[in-house]
Specification:
30% helix, alpha+beta, 5-stranded antiparallel β-sheet, single chain
């Protein structure tokens, strides 16, 4: 099944080709690719250059560790994530390091970092699938995440199985006019025509 996005306007191939598989081929992701994927996240812009994100990376080759990571997911997500090459948990600092004040931009910054690493992965032919259905308290306990960080999400890295059983029948998105407003809420921006 061709999962390439049918965009209304031209975008980078990595954006059009990126999608979230529910079925993975069991082969591992190379160390070199993992390093480059997380290097892409490292160079993401962040408020005051705080880089408030941290990633807990669990490869499937370590069976016991991977089983512990899977136990942090809700049952539905365990069902498909079990075949991914890597399971990752993403956390964000609650306070700025430079002044100790609450960092209300850290989740935004983390989101940018995950988006940037997802595109780096896509360029390398590696798929990602974001995971909101997890037990944050269990992640905190299993990985001794300090209270100064919030567990935000998880995601998988790996190679989509072909055909991708359980995948969507087609990819859709809201039209730009429903997402991009001008000077009045819910009114499409003028440049959209």
């Amino acid at each position: 099944m061709d999962m390439r996005a049918r965009t209304d306007h031209p975008v980078l191939d990595a954006i059009a080709d990126r999608w979230s598989p529910y079925a993975y081929d069991p082969r591992p992701v190379s160390t070199a690719d993992l390093c480059s994927i997380f290097e892409a996240a490292r160079w993401t812009a962040s408020s005051y250059n705080e880089q408030p994100w941290r990633f807990i990376v669990v490869p499937r080759e370590d069976e016991a560790a991977f089983a512990n990571a899977l136990d942090c997911l809700v049952d539905f997500n365990k069902g498909w994530a079990k075949d991914a090459a890597v399971l990752v948990f993403a956390v964000a600092a609650t306070h700025y390091q430079n002044n100790g004040k609450p960092n209300d931009k850290s989740q935004y910054d983390l989101g940018q970092a995950v988006a940037q690493l997802s595109l780096e992965a896509a360029v390398r032919g590696i798929d990602t699938h974001q995971i909101g259905g997890l037990f944050a308290d269990k992640v905190r306990e299993v990985y001794a995440v300090p209270e100064s960080f919030d567990v935000i999400c998880g995601f998988t890295l790996g190679y989509a199985a072909a055909p991708n059983e359980g995948g969507p029948e087609g990819r859709t998105r809201h039209p730009l006019a429903a997402l991009v407003f001008g000077t009045t809420w819910n009114e499409p921006a003028d440049f959209l025509g």
